[in-house]
Design a protein that fits this description.
Length: 186
């Protein structure tokens, strides 16, 4: 069987998980996220809530303790193995990209999801997860400067492929379908 791992990167609220879920539903990709598959289970086992603050704190602690910005990637790589269609939503550090590329070579492709700050803020408030429902625009801007958020622009520039998510979900689906045709995925 073939192996293809798509890493999805982009700013908070740009639609990374929407892209991943569409790839899963239409093309059969298995979805992994740093939050759902690594950090949230750890927070729950520690008796802590899954809030943005707790996720950032745990992620940064793990990176300090276990070898830098790629510290969370080995757990995901182990689950991926050597076959299948996989999508990893939420790639945010250069070292993560390098680790995936080292492990999977040409079978790893980085995809950037582009979206304006205004649209991302509106989407975050609407979805209301991770304590974001009542967030002000000033709080949104503050979070954009967190250590886990700042490197994302640089990682987005490393992507071979880009999806524009400034329009409708249907338009995004068309962009994903076009990407899948380029990657020869049916």
């Amino acid at each position: 069987m073939v192996l293809l791992v798509l890493g999805i990167t982009g700013r908070r609220g740009c639609g990374k998980d929407t892209v991943a879920q569409y790839l899963s539903k239409k093309y059969g990709f298995r979805v992994l996220t740093f939050t759902d598959d690594v950090l949230a289970p750890m927070l729950k086992s520690m008796g802590k809530g899954v809030t943005r603050e707790n996720l950032i704190e745990l992620g940064m602690d793990m990176r300090k303790t276990f070898g830098g910005n790629a510290a969370l990637v080995p757990a995901l790589c182990e689950r991926i193995g050597r076959e299948g269609l996989w999508v990893v939503s939420g790639v945010r550090f250069r070292e993560e990209v390098e680790y995936f590329r080292y492990n999977f070579g040409e079978n790893f492709r980085l995809v950037s999801v582009e979206c304006s700050a205004k649209k991302r803020f509106e989407r975050l408030k609407k979805r209301g997860t991770k304590g974001e429902k009542g967030m002000s625009y000033q709080e949104f801007e503050k979070i954009e400067k967190e250590p886990t958020e700042k490197p994302i622009n640089g990682v987005m520039k490393m992507a071979r492929f880009s999806l524009n998510n400034n329009r409708t979900e249907s338009d995004l689906h068309k962009e994903i379908d076009k990407l899948c045709r380029k990657l020869k995925i049916n």
